[in-house]
Amino acid sequence: MPDIGASGSPATDFSVSLLGEFVRLGVRDVVLSPGARSQALALVCAELERIGQIRLHVRLDERGAGFLALGLAVESGRPTLVVCTSGTAVANLHPAVLEAHHSGVAMILLTADRPSELRGIRSNQTTLQPGLFGVATRLCIDEPAPHGAGAEPGAAISLARRATDAATGLRSLDPGPVQLNLAFREPLSAPVTLTPELISGPAGLAESAAVLSEPILSADRPEPVFLVAGGPRTVVIAGTGAGPEAEEFARAGGWPLLAEVCSGARFGPNLVSAYRELLLASDLGGRVERAVVFGHPTLSREVPAMIAREGVETIVVAPTGSEWFNPGRRVRVFARAAAPDATAVEAAGTPDGREWLGRWVMSSRHLLAAGAARESIPMSDRGITREELAAMRAPVTRPMLADAVWRSSWPHDRLVFGASRLIRVADRRVPGKKISVHSNRGLAGIDGTVATAIGIALASQTGPAPQSTGVTRLVVGDLTLLHDIGSLLLTPGEALPRLQIIVGNDGGGTIFDGLEVAASARAEAINRVLFTPQQADLANLAAAYGWSYGLAASRSDLERALTSPHAGPSILEVPLVR
Ligand SMILES: Cc1ncc(C[n+]2csc(CCOP(=O)(O)OP(=O)(O)O)c2C)c(N)n1
Ligand SMILES: [Mg+2]
């Protein structure tokens, strides 16, 4: 005879122990999609929300739910839970799991399943769920259905601990997704009432949060801290996830900082915004002898080409992760951290060192100024001129859009870019600014972008002021928005994201117009299978989902909409010419 648990349903008792432990470990956001098999987990989540222990986000579509969890985890720095039912529901999490895998984001999937006796006999809504995500999960456990044994609460607690450990990369230094596949048997749930005392154990919120973010350096293959000596002509590259460490490193070593727009390091006196053009210049890019890379560079061909070049020695720095950026497999050193040594600091002060840095920084500034002049409005001191008026009424261009969004973003705001053209336009031209920028560059998919941005917006709104008082702006192409249009579906009663989606609508995927094949293939064929035209009515879509909508046909419309965004979720459509 099994022991009888508190509720009368082993599924519910197990869920209380499991989710209670996750809360103790510092989990605050849970994303949930409805389903019968997962009802015990879902109803315990509803209780935890009621007593103020978690923020619960209910989403119909598991694909969007996965990306919402990703965005919440990226912004909050905490692992986020995803709860779903069995069958295709689980498979819908796959795109977000892959992105989280490649970008090292902690998310923990609680996938409900049939018990063993119902598997492999064509039971309804039953497939092979454990292992579905292959190598993309850091840990995957197929947990048999609880049946009320006395050891089950303890097992649930250790399961939560193992999952959190693996997802945050506490020991492995390799954070990422975890799947707990949880079998449940009838009765699938029983009524449960929770009190805060029942679940708030000794490990408080602050304590667990501190532990989650504590870096533990392993002395395996990568160097724990690599000291970079002076001498070779060096550039510092910052890709996604690089963060302020890259800027600090470049400044300490007196080296030019080639920082992508979503690197978190696009600021400071050593910044080279126009790095793509300058890497092609023989007297700058052509003379590089050493590169130190932070984060994951994805936006240019020039960076990997330089690293793969004969005569360039590369050091790649990543505090976490198990796969290393290694173009042409020519990287010499992999390290968990790096610092310039005394000889490097000394070399930075020599005429040679100063000339090298100065030339990169000044050339970049000149290029940026020339680009800005091309897009700027001619100003006169005698009020508005005819030219000025015409410029304000002219259609918006991509550079104009990138500049305007960048200018209107402040440190308490968040900026998210979709994949495709606009992030590259911004990367080529925007100057240094210490603002929070995210883009899903793990796999650079155009999927889940709206959900990711909603997650970032919602998580950004929960912390202390002033960081929590800003606006999140998402800059996307039309196809990227339409791909994730279902994520506009918000749940009544939940907090609204302060999110402005700025969609550059050029009627299809214009990034493909830049492919070499576009010059040789039949135009109709390119249109049909690459550009893939669309004529969706974004105003009506916004209305259908209850988002406010605006159209920015001119620069003055754009400036106005960006500086006074709607308080809640809104879409700003910006027509762009192909
Ligand atoms: C999930 C996924 N499918 C397909 C692609 C390939 N892809 C890259 S960009 C793009 C088109 C994007 O079009 P849009 O969002 O309108 O941006 P634009 O190129 O017009 O600026 C596609 C289909 C991808 N990156 N991810
Ligand atoms: Mg487009």
What attributes does this structure have?
578 residues; alpha/beta; 6-stranded parallel beta sheet; 22 helices; 19 strands; 37% helix; binds thiamine diphosphate; binds magnesium ion; 2-succinyl-5-enolpyruvyl-6-hydroxy-3-cyclohexene-1-carboxylate synthase; thiamine pyrophosphate; EC 2.2.1.9; menaquinone biosynthesis; metal-binding
Topology, pairings included?
Layout (H helix, E strand, L loop, with lengths): L9 H15 L4 E4 L6 H12 L4 E4 L3 H15 L3 E5 L3 H4 L2 H10 L3 E7 L25 E5 L8 H17 L9 E6 L12 H4 L5 H8 L13 E3 L5 E5 L5 H10 L3 E3 L15 H5 L10 E5 L7 H6 L5 E5 L15 E3 L2 E3 L1 H7 L2 H25 L10 H8 L4 H10 L6 E4 L3 H9 L6 E4 L9 H12 L11 E6 H6 L15 E7 L11 H4 L2 H9 L6 H8 L2 E4 L3 H9 L6 E6 L3
Parallel strand pairs: 1-2, 1-3, 3-4, 4-6, 5-6, 7-13, 8-9, 8-10, 10-11, 11-12, 14-15, 14-16, 16-17, 17-19, 18-19
Bound molecules: thiamine diphosphate and magnesium ion.
The site of thiamine diphosphate has 16 residues, from helix 16 and helix 18.
**Helix content estimate:** 25-40%
Largest sheet: 6 strands, parallel
Strand content: 15-25%
Number of beta strands: 19
Tertiary shape: globular
